[in-house]
Amino acid sequence: MKQKSTTMRVPAACGCGCGEAVDWPIGAMLKWYRSKRTRNSEMPQNITKSAKDIVKDALSQVTAISAEEAMSLVGSPDHVFVDLRDGIEQAKTGIIAGAVASSRGMLEFHIDPDSPAHKPEFNQDKTYVFYCASGGRSALAATVAMEMGLSPLVNLTGGVGAWKKAGGDLVQE
CA 90, 93, 98: angle at the middle one, nearest 5? Predict the structure, then answer.
C-alpha cells in the first residue's frame, strides 16, 4: 500500500539560483502559501469592482418589469422574450413559450446582423424582454445589447425564479 506523502518537493528558496529542491512538510507549505495570499495587495490583478456592483449598475440602467407584467406579454406580437441562460439551464427547466434562446456568451453575435451567428429575431421592431435565472445576467446582457443599439428592451426582475413563483409556465424546446 502506497504511503501518503507528508512533504512536498519544491525549488529551494535561497535565491542563489542553484536550482536545488528541498522537501517541505505540506502543512508548512500551505501555511506559507496562505500567508502570501492577500486580497488586492500582492496579486497581479487589482479588482476594484465586484460582480455584485456591476450587476447593480446594470440593473439601474435597464427598465425592469415584474413577472406578472411579463406574463401578460407572452404571445404578444410586439414583444420578443430572450432567454440568456446557458443551454443546460434551459434544458433543465424549460423556457418561456416562444422565447429566443441566446446564451449570454453568444448574444452579441446573435444581435450583430453582420455576424454569421446572427439571429433574425433580433432584427425586428419589437420590445425585447430579457431574462435569466434571477435577473442579474440578463441585466448585464441588456446593457450590452443597448450599447449595440437594440431597443427598446426590458429586464424581467427576478428572472425564471420570479416567473415560476408567480405561476408562469415554462416549456421544453
Answer: 60
